[in-house]
Amino acid sequence: MRLFFKRIGFILLVFIGVSSAISYGSLWSLRQGSFYKPSFLEHIQTSEFDYIVLGSSTGLTTLNTQVIDSVSGMHGLNLSMDDTSLSSQYLMLQHFIASGKQTPVCILAASILDYDVTDNVLSGNDYRFLPYVSRAYVSDYYRSFSGSSARISAYSNWFPVLGMGYYNVELFYPSLVSLVQPQKRNRFDAYGNYSYPITTNVSELIVSRRSKTLQLNNPYFKKIQDLCAKHDMALVVYIPPHKTLAVEMGSTSFSIINHSDLLHDTKYFYDDVHVNRLGRQAVSLRFRDVFSIHSNLPNTRTDAVLDAF
Q: Any alpha helices (H) in the chain, and if so which ranges?
């Protein structure tokens, strides 16, 4: 019986050792590649940008930095990630700074509804920062949330097998891709942009939208403001186009570019909250015109509700 338990213990130790080695290796591999945005940022050779875009899927698919830069001569980077919230965008800004990158302007293109959230939870794609969980700002971020996924992510600092086991599909297979193709990116181009396809040729006029006033109650918005101020970044809040909502905001101490009711035709939209490839082109061109005028005015308020197409 004693021999049996010794063998079981030995097998268990071997299993833990092999699993830990695979987990460490997978996280290392993800850091070597550019599959997800956090590691993509780490491998960009440029250290200074004229502006960066932080946001959720709306920022990712609405503002095309290539179009914005094409005439303005600026150099921007889109760091938006799908299925994220303001808390994730705060973490991405921390990661940008910790990576030794600099910019004078931070454009926040978050989801319209996310500004009113007060009870934040870990976002669906926050696991993409797990390769950097040994960094204090990442592990502290995970520990700031409750729930099993947050605890597993935080404990992965000491036991990476926990995070790899919990997010196995999202991390293990991308780590193999990063090992074989380190330049491979997950649904974004070399500038961090992505677009939704045109799924309909139907063109209908949008005649009315429901009015919504943003309250800016999300505590992570204040954290982003403070972090921008600490590092001499001008914060520009960008309100993306919406098919059914027209956003209103009162007087603020930061710049605003409000495009919530910019587009008046359904052909520009992929769904209610996202534009398609056609809409992205149109909005990015209009944004470029406004942003090039106001990007060097960090202490002024910019209302830019422009004429519809």
A: 2-32, 37-43, 57-62, 65-72, 86-98, 136-143, 148-155, 160-166, 168-180, 219-230, 277-294
